[in-house]
Amino acid sequence: MGVIKRQSIKGTIYSYIGTVIGFITAGLLFPRFLSTEQIGLLTLLASYSTLFSVFASLGFTSVVIRLFPYFRDETKQHHGFFFLTAAVTAIGCLLSILLFLLLKPLIIKDSIEQSPLFVTYLHLIPPLILFLLLYTIFDSYNRALFNATYGTFLTEVVQRCAILLLTVLFIISLLSFHSFVLLYISALCIPGILIFYPLILKKQTFMRSEFSYIDRNLKKEIIYVSMFGIVIGFSNIIIQRVDTIMINSMIDLSATGIYSISLLFGSIVSLPSRSINRISTSVISDAWKINDIDTISQVYYKSCLNQAIIGGLVFAGIWANISNVFHILSPEYLSGKYVIFFFGLSTFITMSTGVSSSIINLSKDYRYNAYFTCAFGLLVVVTNLVLIPVLGIVGAALASLISSLIYNLMQFVFLYVKYKLFPYDKRILIVLIVIVITYLFSLLIPELSNFILDIFVRSAMMTIVFGSLIILLKVSKDVDGIKTTIIGRLRSFFKINNT
Q: Which of 142, 285, 316, 483 is most exposed, with the fewest beta carbons within 10 Å of its own?
């Protein structure tokens, strides 16, 4: 549990540093210096590349997370697991790029009229597929070795700093837009290159093969986990990316750009959950190996409660500052206001269900997660098809909310019925009440003429009210522990300075 706490705090710090950098880039600079069509181009290139890279993984990300504990033995070079991972990655990459080349004419046909700019840069997708794949697979390998924060550092800090630098160079006319796009794609490839550093440093890149270690049962399990991993991974990427692809197809590239910028603000809610979920997977995987239900139940309970606390504060803070958001963005982005609300609410609901998905995915009943995720993906597609023509980009966000509610409910019911895992008590109701009280309090704060000052004052006062109530009501032992640590360090600091 100490590993989760330390790495989740460290990962959250990286995530929020990345958020600040990303906000400066995508929230401040992109809307002012790039057209909505240009922003849509960058979004769509990333969406298609991610879609194909997930197929390229051949479900092996799930194998790494779920089955590595059965190979773990550094004295025996983990029984050739690194070599096996590298071999599957190479095969998957070749198959995925071949599939892209086969589908390329259809993608061009679908986009040539409403998104000709996207067609111009379609050739950049194959290299991005490769490096996204390398990052995805070997970040999972790092996580299996209990290094969950390095990958976060690469994507949230290193990559975003590179993109910010490129954006500034474009703004001051040292880069043409064509050069900017090429270098932007290169920046997206950086994590896939640097992800190997800790593996090389810790001498974990064992190129020894040991296929004899994989007996009939383990081989069968690898195949099954891979098959379900493909289904889950592909469904997940449909859930995450199909809305932007469908908006481009059903509206245009400009609407895709407005939607992607609006999602940026809504997705801020989910940042704390990323680091918690990343390290929790390794702990849950080892717990399932010895059938330690108590540890799993404890991780499940704490993840739901703590993520609801953090996510609730962030969601309330974003919506309380929504008028300030559109001081930052230009008026053409105003149509994304309720995209922020619905997507932020959807993210908060998902955070409040904790690591339920990881628990199912790493259990012996992992196939059910594939069923649930497939249902989720189908719901996303159907609701988008119904709501986008009626409500435009707001319909896509509402589709996400409806689909998330149903999906999370399915997972919750399954864990309760199958394993009697119930992660909620009266504390979650207290958290919800505190969130509402904090938001209502924000309405009493007079709006300041300077929107930047207003953001700072409003957010600070909401944080004080929210944090004080959570601490006074003793909602979370982890929050109390952080409070005690901070007070202890402050006392030590002042004691040292007074001597």
A: 483
